[in-house]
């Protein structure tokens, strides 16, 4: 199968029912997406599939053939972070950090679809991404900061 991940096209020989999460982590050695629950309940594995946030634990290799996948590693660079990544740094969102790549990917997708969400829309879009450290007020503050930086 052919799959483009973070701008690089890969030819892969994997089982069609392999979850995208394991394809990324085990086959391509991309470790930003995390295994949290395996049942689409926590959001730690969130990536973008053709620009939309999806849970990589619930999508199979055959479903993504020919698609464009973006992980946290491909969202921005250390020299040019995505506005959401920079806002996460500025707001010091992360505590343990385990959920943060999924949180950032969900937030970036939200802002791509809705550049000016209300707090209720932010809360609704982010509600499926769990944070054991309860950084939710800082997550919302970082999203608000990203909105301001993109609008400036």
Question: How would you explain this protein's 3D organization?
Answer:
With 152 residues, the chain is an alpha+beta fold. It has 2 domains: 2-75, Ubiquitin-like (UB roll) (Roll), CATH 3.10.20.30; 83-151, [2Fe-2S]-binding domain (DNA polymerase, domain 1, Orthogonal Bundle). 41% of the residues lie in helices and 12% in strands. It has helices spanning 20-27, 61-64, 72-75, 83-90, 100-113, 119-126, 136-151, and strands spanning 2-5, 8-11, 46-49, 52-55, 68-70. The chain has a 5-stranded mixed beta sheet with strand order 2-1-5-3-4. It is globular and about 40 Å long. The model has no long low-confidence stretch (mean pLDDT 95).
Secondary structure blueprint with pairings:
Elements: E1 2-5, E2 8-11, H1 20-27, E3 46-49, E4 52-55, H2 61-64, E5 68-70, H3 72-75, H4 83-90, H5 100-113, H6 119-126, H7 136-151
Parallel strand pairs: 1-5
Antiparallel strand pairs: 1-2, 3-4, 3-5
Helix pairs in contact: 4-7
Enzyme class: oxidoreductase
InterPro entries: 2Fe-2S-bd, 2Fe-2S-bd_dom_sf, 2Fe-2S_ferredoxin-like_sf, 2Fe-2S_ferredoxin-type, Beta-grasp_dom_sf, Diverse_Oxidoreductases
Protein name: Nicotinate dehydrogenase subunit A
- Strand tally, please? 5
Q: Give the biggest sheet.
A: 5 strands, mixed
Helix percentage: 40-55%
Strand content: 5-15%
Enzyme class: oxidoreductase
Keywords: 2Fe-2S, Iron, Iron-sulfur, Metal-binding, Oxidoreductase
EC number: 1.17.2.1
Pfam family, one: Fer2
């Amino acid at each position: 199968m052919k799959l483009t991940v973070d701008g690089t096209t890969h030819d892969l020989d994997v089982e069609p029912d392999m979850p995208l999460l394991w394809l990324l982590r085990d086959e391509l050695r991309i470790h930003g997406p995390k295994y949290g629950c395996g049942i689409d309940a926590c959001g730690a594995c969130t990536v973008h599939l053709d620009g939309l946030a999806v849970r990589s634990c619930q999508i199979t290799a055959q479903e993504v053939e020919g698609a464009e996948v973006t992980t946290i590693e491909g969202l921005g660079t250390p020299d040019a972070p995505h506005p959401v990544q920079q806002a996460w740094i500025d707001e010091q969102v992360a505590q343990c950090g385990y959920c943060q790549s999924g949180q950032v990917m969900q937030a970036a997708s939200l802002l791509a679809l809705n550049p000016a969400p209300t707090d209720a829309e932010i809360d609704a879009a982010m509600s499926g991404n769990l944070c054991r450290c309860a950084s939710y007020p800082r997550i919302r503050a970082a999203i608000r900061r990203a909105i301001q930086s993109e609008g400036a």
